[in-house]
Specification:
The chain has helices spanning 8-28, 33-52, 56-76, 78-89, 91-96, 113-128, 144-147, 159-165, 205-216, 245-255; strands at 133-137, 151-156, 176-180, 183-189, 220-224, 231-235, 238-241. It is of the alpha+beta class. The chain has 2 domains: 8-89, no CATH class; 106-255, DNA integrity scanning protein, DisA, N-terminal domain (YojJ-like (1). The longest helix is centred in the N-terminal third of the chain and has 21 residues, at 8-28.
């Protein structure tokens, strides 16, 4: 009995497959799609088992089911597939793994540092007054499908303007504000609501909307809770609670470049 020959390429192959499976799991975790994903995996394992046991009839039936099921899976997993392709297509995916991008000494070099200070100053004031707000920061992916649902503004970014738009008697205060660099491009926008079941029960529709847009694009979001006044930062479907304003600034500057 000889030893199994394991090449370096085989190890790389296994690691890449494991990485892809992990990324797929992250995409569907907490959604209704996770049950479908597990069911498909079980059917595929059953198909391979009956093939190995030479059970021809059952193998043929399961093979036809797998073949036809590919099209159905594309339809069912359309949001997850779109998010995965966006992740691969954006230049931020490469920068995310780059060593220099994570060094603290480069955090202050963001071209959006001035805009961010203005936005966070407004968020801090709205936090003190318990004014609800939802702000979306555009990055690589176009948010035209979002801005078209609201009022096109294209106004210069300013703290008083942000606070006045989210003032509770303003008819546009319930929608989202989309910011591109130093411009407020649209207000009163409607965002897709996330169906992720892992979102904490204490989070309301603003947080679910922020998670929803971060699931469908590489956008970043800031949420000010009307009930608690807390500031939350949302990226890649994850919600981060504010610790200090300095920590929040550093965290966002890592991503908004």
């Amino acid at each position: 009995m000889g030893f199994i020959q394991l090449r370096i390429l085989d190890v790389i192959d296994i690691l890449l497959v494991a990485f892809l499976l992990y990324q797929l799991y992250k995409l569907v975790r907490g959604t209704a799609a996770i049950s479908i994903f597990i069911g498909v995996a079980l059917v595929y394992l059953l198909w391979k088992t009956v093939q190995a046991l030479h059970m021809e009839l059952l193998s043929e039936i399961l093979g036809q089911f797998i073949g036809v099921g590919v099209l159905a899976l594309i339809i069912v997993f359309q949001p997850e597939i779109r998010k995965f392709l966006l992740l691969l297509g954006t230049t931020n995916f490469g920068r995310k793994w780059h060593f220099m991008y994570r060094l603290r000494m480069f955090k202050g070099t963001s071209r959006y540092a001035t805009s961010l200070r203005t936005i966070l100053a407004a968020c801090q004031n709205m936090s003190h007054s318990r004014t609800g707000a939802l702000i979306v920061l555009e990055r690589e992916n176009s948010l035209n499908f979002v801005t078209e649902t609201g009022l096109q503004l294209f106004a210069d970014l300013s703290q008083p303007l942000i606070e006045s738009i989210f003032f509770k008697h303003n008819p546009l205060h319930d929608g989202a504000m989309v910011i591109q660099g130093a411009k407020i491009v649209a207000v009163g926008c409607i965002l897709p609501i996330s169906q992720n079941q892992n979102i904490a029960p204490g989070y309301g529709l603003r947080h679910r909307a922020a998670v929803g847009i971060s699931e469908r694009s590489d956008a970043l979001c800031l949420v000010v809770s009307e009930e608690t006044g807390k500031i939350s930062y949302v990226r890649e479907a994850e919600v981060f609670q504010k610790r200090t304003l300095e920590d929040l600034t550093d965290l966002i500057l890592e991503d908004w470049r």
